């Protein structure tokens, strides 16, 4: 999957390309599924320039799960035939090169595995950046998507109380993940206050709520946004620089194996439906994750 100009989903084209090759410290996989993340369509629209400059034409996708097909120089922890998931480049494809990976736990499908890498890296990063600690309360605005689902479950594992906002249809889903839940309809700050005081907050949806989050926590240093680029105007951190993906994958495997992490796959698309996957992701209101099967 490729695009030759920045723009909407219609710029995506399925093209023939030569197989990439694994360089030193990399692996190539036969892709079975690729994760669909907001960063994918933000890059395609040109929103991420100059932080992530792209030469055109460019491929699409960061996350994938599949079978190791080729190992680069210095790679000793996996071999051809192993089932892995991880992060790389141009993963909406039959073959892709990964620079970070982990073996897939037993019982995990390729579709499930493909959606975890970027979601878990982001969730772990922003939990660290907002400074929330065990015994404290975290407010998550836009909590039902992939990152929000991961945040809620990691927080629960760490002994952090979570209040999440989402659409009315997703409130029971949030409660099932252990969160207090309310809609983001008018009056939501008062409903949050009725639950508890808030120590830290995350803005995952970019719904123009940063000011209210600061008012609820009382300190902009305890608020982090991954979706509102105007957040720094209020003293709030806008987080868009990835942390350690290998560490995130290691923690993902730990939580999966102990049975305390599960993020549902809301919808599966074929590679030819990548444009629809991007359009649906951009529309929001996701419960869990979206993935492309190859």
From TrEMBL:
Enumerate the PROSITE patterns for this protein.
Answer: QOR_ZETA_CRYSTAL
Q: How does it assemble?
A: Homotetramer.
Principal subcellular localization: cytoplasm
Which SMART domains does this one have? Answer: PKS_ER
Its lineage opens with: Bacteria, Bacillati, Actinomycetota, Actinomycetes, Kitasatosporales
Keyword terms of this UniProt record? Cytoplasm, NADP, RNA-binding
Coiled-coil intervals in this record? none
Location of the protein in the cell: Cytoplasm
Q: Which organism is it from?
A: Streptomyces erythrogriseus
Pinpoint the Enoyl reductase (ER) domain residues. 7-292
Question: What is the recorded name of this protein?
Answer: NADP-dependent oxidoreductase
